[in-house]
């Protein structure tokens, strides 16, 4: 791990809060617009500066305007600080116009893990070979998606847009993911990872999509190494779709669950 | 349908906004605390007074404090009003202390439905007999849950706490639901319906749960009649669980998808 990873450098906050500055540098984009998960991580990072707990556990963001690159202002506030949970909110604005309104709950997942108690795991990690036996997915073949320059993907089976052929009709993508520069996953980067896979809805013939709302639940601090992902759409109608992502760490533990409501763009 | 249904009467807003008054009357509670979905519907109703679109499509609420019955103040604001989508926020407070911070996107699902375009339905409605051939589930056997006095439930198979016996180990509940007073479902009531089923996590031995965050995506205006529901938990660890609810209208159309992050209480 380098002293400052690409991700953390790109998310550098200036100022002491509660209003912070940052720059959307155009290097974390999907088709000219800053990745929604990247923006959500930035807002959550700002809230994290103000609250007494280390770990975001639930984050929801509403995307008011496209995240066009440039300097932004992030105005964060604490809504409530309780004994085990703190709540905060952040607004990300560019030229005085709000791009994102994000709310978050924070807690201490380390302390939570020590408490033990009931457990149940009905999650179903992808049934896929280890990363070294998978195919490399070059997402950079979609030219203007700068985000993917920072990430490596491995898949047991390539999507139609990488392998050639027609959409499968089955809107599910599975695989492995990690940062190119060796930065290990953490909770903030999971907020971006859940939104860093190509839209599964491409497999039913959609062009691209725009996010209205994205919620992420963070269920555990991820172990180092590749993360396994599944991104899936179950319902598309009247131009709206939901996309669920799940992420498991290298130890096979479910560490993130996300859902977004999107609008299909032609 | 009566002139004013129980639900709408209990959600009456006073004032012209953007600050409204309301009363949590203790008749929509789970164990002494106002149902979280009911509160989310109340906040969304207030936002709806201020925006130019009729239909909430995505709503997220963070539960800062328990919704103890009594008079509340709801402070709503419009965050952005766009061509097809408006965004708003509301804060529900009691005695000056914030109980809920809710954000919502609104649009016009009627206009959206007319646009046609791609569709995909991978949702899996419960495989269950019609309501008339199902068993009546009397949730009122849990004494202090006043919410259930307003709702009827039908299930193909009763949960262990109604039928006797031990938890099944399978945290899924399916069935039918409607208002007792004949009020038909709409988008606001779906916000409560997603949270009006007993926690599926009871089936793996949990006591009850408290909601940290609840997101609801509303996918279509429901047809009149019974709605079919499924409530499911896939992952419980370190005291946290997610609970997903899906609701289909009487025509078999998926009309709501929700997810909440909860904390297990003993």
Verbal overview:
Two copies of one chain form a homodimer. The first copy, chain A, has 266 residues and is mainly β. Chain A has one domain: Beta Barrel (Porin). Chain A has helices at residues 6-10, 36-48, 109-114, 160-163, 187-193, and strands spanning 19-24, 29-30, 33-34, 55-63, 70-81, 86-94, 97-107, 120-121, 135-137, 151-155, 172-179, 208-218, 227-232, 235-237, 240-248, 254-265. In chain A, strands 1, 4, 5, 6, 7, 9, 10, 11, 12, 13, 14, 15 and 16 form a 13-stranded antiparallel beta sheet that branches. A two-stranded antiparallel ribbon of chain A has the order 2-3. The longest helix of chain A has 13 residues, at 36-48. Chain A is globular. Chain A starts with 5 loop residues before the first helix and ends with a strand. In chain A, 50% of the residues are buried. At the A-B interface, strand 4, strand 7, helix 3, strand 8 and strand 12 of A face strand 4, strand 7, helix 3, strand 8 and strand 12 of B.
What general outline of chain A do the C-alpha atoms trace? globular
CATH architecture of chain A: Beta Barrel
- Helical/strand content category of chain A: mainly beta
Classify the fold: give the CATH topology of chain A: Porin
CATH class of chain A, please? Mainly Beta
Q: Rg of chain A, please? A: 18 Å
Largest interface: A-B, 55 and 53 residues
Unreliable residue runs of chain A: none
Number of domains of chain A: 1
List the helices and strands and how they pair.
2 copies of one chain form a homodimer.
Chain A: H1 6-10, E1 19-24, E2 29-30, E3 33-34, H2 36-48, E4 55-63, E5 70-81, E6 86-94, E7 97-107, H3 109-114, E8 120-121, E9 135-137, E10 151-155, H4 160-163, E11 172-179, H5 187-193, E12 208-218, E13 227-232, E14 235-237, E15 240-248, E16 254-265
């Amino acid at each position: 791990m380098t002293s400052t990873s690409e991700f953390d450098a790109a998310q550098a906050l200036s100022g002491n809060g509660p209003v912070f500055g940052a720059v959307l540098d155009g290097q974390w984009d999907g088709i000219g617009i800053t990745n929604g998960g990247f923006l959500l991580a930035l807002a959550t990072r700002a809230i994290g500066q103000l609250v007494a707990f280390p770990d975001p556990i639930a984050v929801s963001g509403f995307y008011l305007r496209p995240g066009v690159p440039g300097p932004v202002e992030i105005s964060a506030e604490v809504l409530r600080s309780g004994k085990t949970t703190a709540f905060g909110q952040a607004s990300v604005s560019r030229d005085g116009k709000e791009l994102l309104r994000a709310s978050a709950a924070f807690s201490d997942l380390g302390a939570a893990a020590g408490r033990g108690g009931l457990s149940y795991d009905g999650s179903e990690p992808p049934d896929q070979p280890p990363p070294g036996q998978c195919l490399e997915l070059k997402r950079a073949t979609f030219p203007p998606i700068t985000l993917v320059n920072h990430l490596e993907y491995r898949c047991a089976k390539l999507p139609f847009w990488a392998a050639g052929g027609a959409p499968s009709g089955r809107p599910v993508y599975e695989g492995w993911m990690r940062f190119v520069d060796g930065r290990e996953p953490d909770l903030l980067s999971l907020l971006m990872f859940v939104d860093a896979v190509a839209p599964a809805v491409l497999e039913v013939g959609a062009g691209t999509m725009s996010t209205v709302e994205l919620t992420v639940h963070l269920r555990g601090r991820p172990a180092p190494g590749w993360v396994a992902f599944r991104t899936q759409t179950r319902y598309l109608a009247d131009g709206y779709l939901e996309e669920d992502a799940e992420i498991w760490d290298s130890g096979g533990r479910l560490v993130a669950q996300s859902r977004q409501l999107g609008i299909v763009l032609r």
